[in-house]
Hints:
This protein is α+β, with helices and mostly antiparallel strands. Helix content is 47%, strand content 22%. It is built from 13 helices and 11 strands. The chain is elongated and about 80 Å long. The C terminus is likely disordered.
Amino acid sequence: MREWDFGPFSYIRSLRLGPAADHHGFRCHARGGHVGSLLHATHYSDEFSGVSGGVPDNGSVVAHFIRSGWARFENETTSVTLRPGQVVFRDTTKPWRFWFGPATRSRTVVVPLDQLVRHAVVPGKLPEIVVTDARLAEVRLLTGFLDLARGFGDDALSPLGRSITQDVGIQLLAGAMGAARAADAGEHSNVVLAAARRFIAEHLDDPNLAPAVIAQGVHLSVRSLHRAFEDADDSVMVYVRRQRLRRARIDLMAPGERVADVAARWRFSDTSHFIRHFKAAYGITPAAFIKERGRLGGGTAANGAVSDRRSLAE
């Protein structure tokens, strides 16, 4: 109880076990440790809820990584529900009500707010709460550090090693929180867009190319991927179709190419689907385009192909 009242969990003000505890008891397993002032723990438990935060003089930044089950955090203005594969960063100087669902597995990291401010550069105002995908690159760096930290206790390090390791952990937490806020605010849209477009170009002939595949390929959530394209007044699959049409147009310049073969090569569901989109994009059917290129002559067609390839590269 002394650790509860005065230690790293002191931001929790009350706890209530779920209704099943009255009949079946309450199961909970937790394992963790600390490196200096950075606390890390993994836990599994039955359903419970409570209130945390709201003590400005004893604030912390807490991150919860949900592995199974669900968790919800809310206050007077905000409510967020986390599912497996998501992470939430929250400021406990603000009061929060929280719920953890049955059979929830999670990882928690706690850093005192004054330590975060002292050891890490946190640009701008500290966010009240921010949710992101655990596949975000900066989050993966943090989880990699935590996986290593589980292998040794605080007392296994020399004083210098403890200080350095604590600082690294806090910096990684700050970096993950900042990246999560930037992704949520769309500040990384241009970077995301460039990475996604590169991935699409490299996998354009993949029949399984879809937003979920692209998002996984660039280590982002599907939501962040869609938002990046929306910021550019575009959509993911419209962009994919546009690039496939450009590749198909180049292929149609080659002698002997058949419309049906090109449509299949660039993953259009059928020839009529390809013809319809090609005409909408270029104002002419593929067959008429082939005929027109033939009438203009091979040299012009070749020059056009070079020009189109240059345009595609740009």
